[in-house]
Amino acid sequence: MLVKDILNANSLSFSFEFFPPKTDKGWGSLFETISDLEPLKPAYVSVTYGAGGSTRDRTHDLVTKIEKDTGITVVSHLTCVGSSKDEIMDILKKYDEAGISNILALRGDAPEGTQKWEQHPDGFRHASELVAFIKKHFPHMGVGVAGFPEGHPETPNRLKEIDYLKAKVDEGADYIVTQLFFDNRDFYDFCERCDIAGINIPIVAGIMPIVTKSGMDRMAELAAGAKFPASLIRGVQRAESDEYVEKFGIHWATEQVRDLIDNKVKGIHFYTLNKSLQTLKIYESLGLKGSKQQ
Fold first, then answer.
1. Mean per-residue pLDDT for 224-251?
2. Which of 21, 54, 235, 292 is deepest in the core (most CB within 10 A)?
3. CB burial readout 181-210, b (16+ within 10 A) else e
């Protein structure tokens, strides 16, 4: 089933994101997580794609295994970086043959150790070009794109940022999944600016709880430009150990989700880091049913 159809058919949908493990032990742990979360009946799950296509094969293997073993609708990330148009065509053909019909089209980050993002000589520079390519050659596929409530780190001009997002929508994007954020006001402002720009496809809010102090530091590095409200920083610093950081982080994310639900958000996407505890705790605290239909 296409994600756009799921989002349009339900007033509220929940989804989870996983990444391909590097070890056999990691694969075992991930499928324990998927088993723990499966009773929550997610609307769909997504699988990330490493910088420069570094997890290309593992992403494909994980996507097809989830599709085959669970029956959950699965979305594969696909990036422009490090791939030619022919390579992207081959990847899409393999997904199509495997019955995978949902793609999250991304420009992608520069490979680790490189100074800046560089376009493949025979590839795409912008995610909007990737969206157009998918829609041209695989019009039956559903395509999601990324949104940045706190602003894209490489686009300080917030007006152009929305223009770039609108370009992806104009090329056929079906829905938007946002990067993580910690202040819902940023998300609501982002939605309003999308509305002003004529972007009227579903917008799914990305949520990831902070679970350790070092994790927050890494998040600040990886999600360049991420904004941490003073009250969030104060709460993390006040925690006596990472055990209490996790409790506080889950509480903060739970309140975000509660507020988003109260304000009729179309979907909530949990960045799980391949763990189930935090998501399960949020569901439990809010008394959410294990159902994509809310």
1. 92
2. 292
3. bbbbebbbebbebbeeeebebbbbbbbbbb
